[in-house]
């Protein structure tokens, strides 16, 4: 049997319900005033700096920014960024604090693909940085035959030297870069030029190489290109004497055949 609710109990329940509703209204009012972030709204999308639609417009209006970005893109080998920056008007002649253009910066970082893209876009292969390195000289010194060929086809200065007096041929011979030496000799880079230490490409190949097959090929290319087998260093030591002192019999035979002594 169901019991009828007591009038006093109904009164208590009514009071409790009223208090609960009042507290709820107070909580909602406080929340709206002090905690707006808890409202069920879609959060704003965070756009990284430089990634929004306004970034490119800002870059276009600031030559210094786009020129700096081009050098950074070249250093990191970012060919897509290079193309975008060039389209936005970045200068191929802009330089950093070391006097490096984007092309020179790319080669210091061994970014050959980026360097070739810049050359094809019109970058000057003969501009030199603060230590007189050009893109052409750097490519040769690094053994980058593909970039050397491209630089030659874009008017590379065959007589260019850096602060050490090195032509493109001297460091290439020193390191036994056979393919690069071949390209440079064929192009007409002076084979008997000396650097600030009085060393020719031939002397560096003999005195600073290891006498291996690649150095024998390098020596032969230099001799075929007109290198003087008897042109000594400042100490009066000829390539032949260097070869004998180091026990390089193969190179010695090549020099002897070329009438070296």
TrEMBL record:
Magnesium keyword on record: no
Pfam families for the chain: Ank_2
Listed Basic and acidic residues bias regions: 56-66
InterPro entries from the UniProt entry: Ank_Repeat/CDKN_Inhibitor, Ankyrin_rpt, Ankyrin_rpt-contain_sf
Secretion signal, residue range per the UniProt entry: none
Superkingdom of this protein's organism: Bacteria
Segments of this protein annotated with the region Disordered: 44-66
Keywords, alphabetical: ANK repeat, Plasmid, Repeat
PANTHER family: ANK_REP_REGION DOMAIN-CONTAINING PROTEIN (PTHR24201)
UniProt-recorded name of the protein: MFS transporter
Highest classification ranks of the organism: Bacteria, Pseudomonadati, Pseudomonadota, Betaproteobacteria, Burkholderiales
């Amino acid at each position: 049997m169901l019991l009828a609710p007591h009038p006093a109990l109904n009164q208590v329940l009514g009071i409790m319900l009223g208090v609960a509703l009042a507290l709820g209204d107070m909580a909602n009012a406080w929340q709206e005033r002090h905690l707006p972030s808890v409202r069920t709204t879609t959060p704003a999308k965070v756009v990284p700096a430089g990634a929004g639609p306004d970034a490119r417009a800002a870059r276009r209006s600031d030559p210094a920014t786009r020129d700096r970005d081009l050098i950074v893109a070249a250093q990191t080998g970012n060919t897509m960024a290079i193309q975008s920056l060039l389209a936005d008007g970045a200068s191929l002649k802009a330089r950093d604090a070391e006097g490096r253009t984007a092309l020179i910066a790319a080669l210091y970082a061994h970014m050959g693909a980026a360097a070739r893209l810049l050359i094809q876009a019109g970058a000057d292969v003969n501009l030199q940085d603060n230590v007189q390195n050009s893109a052409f000289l750097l490519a040769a010194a690094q053994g980058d035959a593909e970039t050397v060929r491209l630089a030659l086809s874009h008017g590379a200065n065959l007589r260019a030297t850096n602060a050490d007096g090195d032509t493109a041929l001297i460091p290439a011979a020193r390191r036994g870069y056979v393919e690069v030496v071949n390209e440079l000799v064929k192009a007409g880079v002076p084979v008997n030029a000396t650097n600030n230490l009085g060393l020719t490409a031939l002397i560096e190949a003999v005195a600073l190489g290891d006498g291996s097959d690649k150095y024998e090929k390098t020596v032969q290319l230099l001799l075929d290109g007109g290198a003087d087998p008897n042109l000594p260093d400042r100490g009066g030591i000829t390539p032949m004497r260097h070869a004998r002192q180091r026990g390089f019999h193969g190179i010695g035979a090549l020099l002897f055949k070329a009438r070296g002594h």
